[in-house]
Fold each of these.
Amino acid sequence: MALLNCDFHIHSCLSPCGDDDMTPNNIVNMSLLNGLDVIALTDHNTCGNCRSTMAVGAENGLIVLPGMELTTAEEIHVTVIFPTIEKAEAFDGYVSSKRMPIKNRADIYGNQYFMDSMDNVVGEEPDLLILATEIGLYDVAGLAEEYGGVATLAHIDRHSNGVLGVLGNIDEDMGFSRAEITPNAPEDRYKERFSFLSFVKSSDAHDLLTIAEAHKCSVIKTKDRSAASVFEYLKNGK
Ligand SMILES: [Zn+2]
Ligand SMILES: [Zn+2]
C-alpha cells in the first residue's frame, strides 16, 4: 500500500502561458522539493514535453504521468492523462489534426518551447496551442478511453474555461467520472452537488511557485508506488 501526494495538472514551457523556466528539470525538482510523489504534465492541446519530463522524473524518483489539457470546441478545459507515453503521443497525433492552424505570436502569447531532458530547447511549436479544438465536450471522455487515457473536467470551480463557468452544470451524459478543483475550493460542496463524480485537487501550475505543496493537493491510496497504480486510481479510484 502506498500513500502518494499528487499534482495532476502542471504546464511546461510548451504552453504559451507557461513560464519559460517550467523546464523538465525545474518542474521535477520543484515537485520533489514540495514533497510530491506524482505529477501529470498537462500542456494545452499537446503532449510534446511529456517524454523528456518523464525521463527526468524516472531518473530522480518522481512519477510523471503524460497528459494534456484539451480545450474543447466549447472552450472548456479537460485534462486527459495516460498510463504510457505511447498512448499519450497517439492521442496527441489525433488532437493535432483537430487544432486550429493559427500561428502563435510569441511576443503576445508567449513562447512554446519543446525541450529535451537536459532542458535544451529543441524546437518551437508554430501554431498557437491554447485555442479551442474541434472536439466537443460530450465526445472527450469516450475519445480518451478509446486512446487508453482518462479524462477529468479541469478546474470546475474556476469561471474561465471551467465547465460550470461555460455551461452552468455537469450532467452524467457528459460521461465524466472525475472532476478537478483548485486547492482552496470547498470540496465538500462540490461532492454534495455532484455525487456521481470523484474529485482531485490540482495546482494548474504555470510557474514553479504554483506547483502544489504535498499537503495542499490530492493524497491518494494505491496498491504500490507505480505509474500503473496511479493511473488505475484515476480511472477507477474514489
Ligand atoms: Zn485550464
Ligand atoms: Zn491548465
Amino acid sequence: MIQWFPGHMAKAKKEMEEKLRLVDIVYELLDARIPYSSKNPLINELLKNKPRLILLTKSDMADDFYTNKWKNHFTSQGFPSLSIDSVSGLNIKKIVGVSQTILKDKFEKEKARGMKPRPIRGMIVGIPNVGKSTLINKLVNKRVANVGNKPGITKAQQWVRLNANLELLDTPGVLWPKFEDQKVGMHLAITGAIRDEILKSDELGYYLLDFMKANYEKNILERYQLSAGLSNLDILKHIASTRGISNKEDVEEKAAEVLLNDFRSLRLGRITLDIL
Ligand SMILES: Nc1nc2c(ncn2[C@@H]2O[C@H](COP(=O)(O)OP(=O)(O)O)[C@@H](O)[C@H]2O)c(=O)[nH]1
Ligand SMILES: [Mg+2]
C-alpha cells in the first residue's frame, strides 16, 4: 500500500505530547461506522493513563445495533464512551457530565488540597474528517468565549471556554489513521476519511458490494430494485444503466462512484462497516 503522512508522524506525535500535558481529559473521536479503522494505532501509547472519553461521531449514519456493541466493547476495556451526532446535537450535552464523572477523583483531590474550583480542560483528537471541527463548533455554539492565552501554560495555545465547567483547546489534535491492512484502508476510503484517488473506486465498489451482500443485502436490493443472487459486475452494470451511464470502458468505475455516493449520503441506509 501507499505511504501515508510520510515524515509527519514524528512531528505530530511530539506536538500531541506537548498539548497533552495541558489537559485533564482527551476526547478521542472515532467514526461510529468504523470505530476500529478510525482509531489511531498509537493512541494508547500517546495517551498512556490520561483520562479519556471515546466519542463515536456520526452515529446518525451508523447502525445503532453495532454502535451499542462497540460501546459495550469499550466499556469492557475500561473506556467510557458516548455516541454523538454533532449535526443534530445528539448527546452533545452529556459530554460535560460524563467528563466530570471521569475526573471526579482528580477534582476532589484538588479541592482537598485547597485548590479553587476550575473548569475541566479538554482536548479533541482524531483522524482527518472524523468530525473534530464540527464537534468544536457545536460545543462552542453561540456561547463562545475565547479565554485567550494562559500565562505560565503555553504561549500560543488558545482555550475556548464552553461553560463554567469545561474549557477546550481550540485546535484539535490531528491523528494519522492506520493502514496496516487493506480492509482498514477500504473502510477509511468508503467513508470518505481518505481521498478517493488513493484507492480506485471500482475496487471500493466491489468491496462494498461484497460487504453489503454479506451484511446488509436488503438495503442494496431495495435501493436498486434488484433480485438476490446477482454478481457484483451485474449489479454495477444495472446501476450504470439506471443512471444512463453508457457502456464505456469505465462503466464499473462510474457505477461504483454512484454506489459510494449513495453510501455516503445514507441512501443505502445506516451502515456500520467495522462489525464485531
Ligand atoms: N452526519 C454527520 N456528519 C458529521 C458529523 N460530524 C461531522 N460530520 C461531517 O463530517 C465531515 C467532516 O467533519 P469535520 O468536522 O470537518 O472533520 P475534522 O477533519 O475532524 O475536523 C463534514 O462534512 C461534517 O459535516 C456527525 O456527527 N454526523
Ligand atoms: Mg477540522
Amino acid sequence: MAQTKKKKIIGLSCGRVNGNCEILLKEALMAAEELGVQSEIIRAMELRVKPCKGCEACTIALGRGKEPRCAITDDDVPWILDKILVEDCALIVSAPVYHLRANSYFEAIHERMLPTMFRHPEITEKRRVGGIICVGGGEPEWTPLGLTSINIFVQHTRKLVDQMQVNFVPRPGAVLMEGKYLKRAGQLGQNVAKALMMPMEKVKYVGDETEASCPVCHCNVLKVPGNLSEVYCPVCWVRGTIYADENKLKVKWDEDDIQNPRFSTKFIGKHLDLVIELHKKFFTEDQDKVKELIKKYIAYGKIIKP
Ligand SMILES: Cc1cc2nc3c(=O)[nH]c(=O)nc-3n(C[C@H](O)[C@H](O)[C@H](O)COP(=O)(O)O)c2cc1C
C-alpha cells in the first residue's frame, strides 16, 4: 500500500549547539512528532553564515530582467533559505536575544532572503504555518524586540500560529530547570503541528496576546509616525486608532490593512515593482550624473583602520 508522506516542520535554531534555543526547539518538535509530523533541524551556528555585503547583485539582476541570485556563493545561507522559505513545510524559528532583539546569526540569514523571495514570489501567499521561540538570559526588559524582530522574517511566508518569549536562562541548559518553558515549547510544537494538518482557512493564532497586539503578528510594539491617536504595527504596517471605550483605551485596527499587511503578496508586489522601477531609472538616467557628483565624496576623508 502506498504510504502517505508525513507533513514536516523544519526548525531553525540560531543559538548555541545544545543551548537553550535548541533545547526548546527540540522540545517543540518532539511534542509535534507525537501528533504524527516529521521534523528536521538546521543549526545556524554549525553552518557557514555570512552577512549581506550590500552588493545589490540580486536587485540589479531583477532590474535587468535576469534571475536574482546572491553573489555570496561560498556559504550555506542560500541552502538554508531554500529549506525554510521554499520547501513545503511548517517553520519554527528559535533564536536568542543578544541585545534587545534577535541575534546576528538570525539576522544574517534574514537579510539574505531577498533573492529567494524574488525568485519565488508565490511563497508570500502564506499557505504554510509557523511558530517562533525567542530566548533571553535576563529580565523581560532586555528582550522587548525579540519576537518582533523574528516576526519580520516569519511574516513573509508563514501564517503565525504561536510564539513564546523566554527569559532568565543565561547559561546553556538553564532552560532545563524551567519546567514551565519546556511545557510551553511542547504546546507550541503541537499547536504548529495541529495547524499543519488543518485547511489554511481554519488556522488561527493561539499564542499570547495583549490588548494592544497587532492582529497579524500579535506583537505589541506600536509605532507612532505622526500624531496620536494613529498608530501602526512596525512589522505589518497595519494601522490602528486609539480610542476611549468608557474609561479604557483601546486600539481599533484597520480591516483593509489586516487583509493586506506589509508582507502580503499585494503589498510586497507593489514594493518590488517600485524597486525594479528605481533600478531601471538609475541605470538609464541617473548613473552618469552620480558618477560625477560622487567624486568629491570619494576624494574626502581620512579612513581609519585597526
Ligand atoms: C553577547 C550576549 C549578549 C546578550 N544580551 C542579552 C540581552 O540583551 N537580553 C537578554 O535577555 N539576554 C541576553 N543574552 C543572553 C542570551 O540570550 C541567553 O544566554 C540565551 O540563553 C542564549 O541562547 P542559547 O543558549 O540557545 O545560545 C546575551 C548573551 C550574549 C552571549
Amino acid sequence: MSLSDLGWSEALQQQFAQLASTFPDTTLEPARVITEHRGAYQLITAGGPCWAEPTGRLRHQAEDRSQLPAVGDWVAVDPQARVVALLPRKSAFVRKVAWNRSEPQVVAANVDAVFIVTSANTDFNPRRIERYLTAVREGGATPVLVINKTDLCDEIEPLLASLGSAGHGLCVARVSALERRGGEQLTAHLGPQRTVALVGSSGVGKSTIANWLLGKEALATGEISENERGRHTTTQRQLLPLPAGGSLIDTPGMRELTLWAEAQDLEASFADIEELAARCRFLDCQHQGQPGCAIGDAVEAGELDPARLESFFKLQREVQHLEQRRQHSPARLQKQKQIARAIKQRKRSPLGGKLR
Ligand SMILES: Nc1nc2c(ncn2[C@@H]2O[C@H](COP(=O)(O)OP(=O)(O)OP(=O)(O)O)[C@@H](O)[C@H]2O)c(=O)[nH]1
Ligand SMILES: [Mg+2]
Ligand SMILES: [Zn+2]
C-alpha cells in the first residue's frame, strides 16, 4: 500500500516540506494515523506500518486533546518513531470528549465525507440526525445520511419526511448491508484519495457496511438483542484502506453526540428557522411569545413543527453554553491556581493548616 492510496497528494507534500524545514536537525517522514491505542499511534509510512508516540514537545504544546494526532491525521515522524508534528487538517469530525468537560475530541481527521449511519427500523431519530449534520458541517466535511437495514422496513419515505427541512438537499443513501443492496450510493462518495468516516449509534451496522465495502470480514460485527442494547462491538477508531483506493474510518457507536459547534453551523442546519427569525418584529425577539414573532406565527399556523423548534432551542443553548465555558475556562484555571497557592502558603505559616 502506498501513501498515495491513502490520499497523499502534491499539496500535502508541499505542506510537509514546509513543516519539515522547521525541524532542520532531523530527517522527517510523512505518515498517516491508522489507529490509536493508549496514546500510541499506528502509522502508515512509505516504508510500511509502524507504531509511534508523540514527542514530549508536541504533547506539551497541545492546548487540548484535539491538537494531538487523531485517526486520519497526516503527521511528520522522526527516525526514532516519534510524531513530531501534525499537518494542518483540511476537515475533522469533532465531538465533545465527555459530557462534563468542555474539551473537543477529534473522531476522524481529514475526511471528505461522513456517513451518518442510522437504521431504518428502530434507530431513526430526526433530532439526533440534525445534531450529526451540524457536527459534520462544522468540521468541514460533506454529510451523507445512510439509512441501513432497509430490509427490515419498507417505509423509508415517511422517515425522510420527518426530517423536515433538515432533509432538503441532503444526500441520502438507502442500503441494506445484510443483503448488499444500494452499494453504488455509497461508492459514489468513495474513490482514490478520498476518506470517509462512518459514525452513528451502536448496532446500526457501521462495521457491517465497512466489511461490505472492504470486500472482506476485516471488522467484528455484533448481534444486538433487545435487552443488551447499547453494547458496543467496535471499541476503537480505525482507518482502513479500500481495495479500489481511498479509505474508510470505522468508529465505535456513540451513545450521545455532544456538539462542538459554532452558531453559524446551527444556522445552516436550521435555515428555515433563521429565515423566520429575520421576519420577527423585534430584532432581539426571543421567540417565546413576543408580539410579532414570525416563528410563533409559523408554529401556530402549523408551518413549523414545535418539536423542531424545541430542538433548535436546545442546540442553541448547548452551543451558547459551550461558548461560555470555552471563554471562561482560562480564568477558572487561574482561580484554581490562586487557591492552590493560598493553601500552600497557609500550610507554611505559623498557624499551620488551621483555617483563619
Ligand atoms: N437486518 C439487517 N441487519 C444488519 C444490517 N447491517 C447490519 N446488520 C446487523 O446489525 C448488527 C450490528 O451491526 P454492526 O455492524 O456490528 O454495528 P455497528 O454500527 O458497527 O455497531 P458498534 O460497533 O457497536 O458501533 C449485526 O448483527 C449486523 O449483522 C442490515 O442491513 N440489515
Ligand atoms: Mg462497529
Ligand atoms: Zn421571534
